[in-house]
Fold:
Amino acid sequence: MTSTRAERDAALHADAGRPSRREQILQAAAQLFAERGSRAVGVDDVGAAVGVTGPAIYRHFASKDAMLAEMLLRISERL
Structure:
């Protein structure tokens, strides 16, 4: 099945309002860390929350600590 350029463009615009996968991961991780504490949350938990496998998280972050570090950096920038 081939798609037309218009169909591809429409699909891209439909995704424009949605957060990137990286943002989805950060949002889910922040929620889980707040609920359970970062030590009690594994990458599999974060992956499940966004609909990917745990190892897929490593395409976006080097480690769980890297996710936490980015969250803390963003928080400190807002202060």
The chain has a mean pLDDT of 88. The two ends are 50 Å apart (CA to CA).
